Amino acid sequence: MKRSLVVSGALLCAFVATAADVAPLQPEQASVEKLGAPSPHWVFVYDVNFLGYLDSKVYLFDADTGSMLGMLSTGAFGNAVEFAPDFSAIYVPEMYYSRGSRGERTEVVTTYDTQELKPVGEVVIPSKRATGIPHRAYQGISDDGRFVFVANMTPATSVSVVDVAVQKFVTEIENSGCNLVYPTGKRSFMSLCGDGTVLSVQLDDQGNLESKTRSAKFFDPDKDPLTEKASRYGNTWLFFSFDGYVHPVTFAGDKISIGERWSLFNEIERAQNWRVGGSQFNAVHQAAGRLYVIVHQGGTYGHKDGGKAVWVYDLETQNGVAQFALTDIATNIAVTKDSAPLLITDDAARPAVDVYDALTGKALRTIAGPPATPSFIQSP
Fold it and tell me: Which portions of the chain are predicted below pLDDT 50?
């Protein structure tokens, strides 16, 4: 017993001596990484988060490297984000409940900075925001970046107008019989109407209602209705029918010009049951004048089904110019805006984002989750 105590004492002395020789741990300094200048291949991917819909998220990825750069926590039932024209701010309509999943409902348009992705302001708006599977037209931003428009449905329809330059709610504009937001200029937007028309809304410089103009009827909502999923090409919004016809609607101030509809599919392709489908199945590259569309072969009611092919069209000639095979099914699509564009796709059933060369269709990389249930994709 005495020998053991002597040995134990010797070991303790050795431990104390060794510990005294070790330099004390330095406290770790917390820091915040800043994003720096944006890359043309940055993409924002919305996570609808079906298993936790009250905690929606938007992830920022570098599509060149596949690395995640940051995340926005955007409250309940989020839709998309809006970018200031110079990418100095990000605006997000958000919903919160005072008791988490219940209680008083508050809706805001939150402003985030683009260096640390932190909230720097918010504007309370009427708690009427329309929600659903995220897509482009639940909200929009004026061409000069001053006003954010948020679509409402209670089920009465209207649009909330927020002046983000001075961070205040301006007004609510009723648009009965019509819904959603398609920006058309510095002080205007359109809504799609259930009677086969569009409604053009003009604002004054303070964001209040100045006038409304209704177009002539240009589609049959009973025989071949339009989907709400549209793409803007310059001063034209391209609307798509369930049967695969493109309806161009061009705007200039309060004047609306309805173009000739044209078909994405020829008679042989129609006989083979080629169809458009997905949550956001179309995208436009402005500079190249190219339209990208997710297609699949299916039945009459397959408009929500994704596809493993993307067909590309020249918007000037309205001719198909390429057909790309995808590595996995896609329901959402986006194209970056630069001269070497990337094609970005995802599907909510698979926690991954796929990246392709938008000029050749070559598969470049897959970015594995997060997000858990990827949906709407945006390129700033």
Answer: 1-7
